[in-house]
Design a protein that fits this description.
The structure is a single chain. By secondary structure, the chain is of the alpha+beta class. A three-stranded antiparallel beta sheet has the order 1-2-3. α4 crosses α5.
Length: 147
């Protein structure tokens, strides 16, 4: 029986080894997770890599509102809408549609703060006005989206 050996392993050594193996696996998984990043951070990764979503600039688009034509000015940077404004036009438009200016300002504030166009929250009292304005903003975004 010279080839037979009996190995005695104490339970605390087995448990210690198991804890080290589990900790090592968790550490490796954590490193992989950190290297790959989150899918929700694609905008920030794109801006860090210099990948732009839009052609930066200031664009004006006309919109029919009732019997009047209103010009909206949309300012874009490479990744988001910076501002939406009404181009000074006929005074009668702001008189006939008093909710137009506050609606544009509310949309502009949301878009400039980084809210995606599809996640815009509309106010109850000017919902129709804001939806009409957002259709025009969406058209500008589609026209100037980089491929």
């Amino acid at each position: 029986m010279p080839g037979t050996k009996i190995v005695v392993i104490q339970r605390k050594h087995v448990l210690f080894s198991a804890v080290l193996v589990v900790a090592g696996i968790l550490f490796i998984a954590f490193l992989i997770f950190m290297m790959l990043g989150k899918k929700g951070d694609s905008d920030s990764v794109a801006s860090q890599n210099g990948e732009a979503k839009y052609q930066a600039g200031v664009y004006t688009k006309d919109m029919e509102f009732g019997e009047s034509t209103v010009s909206l000015q949309v300012s874009l940077d490479a990744n988001q809408v910076k501002a939406v404004e009404i181009v000074p036009s006929d005074e009668s438009v702001t008189t006939m549609y008093p909710l137009m200016e506050p609606a544009v300002q509310t949309l502009s504030d949301q878009l400039a703060s980084g809210v995606a166009p599809e996640n815009i929250e509309y106010g109850e009292e000017s919902r129709y006005t804001q939806e009409s304005i957002m259709k025009v903003v969406d058209q500008v975004l589609e026209e100037h989206k980089l491929k």
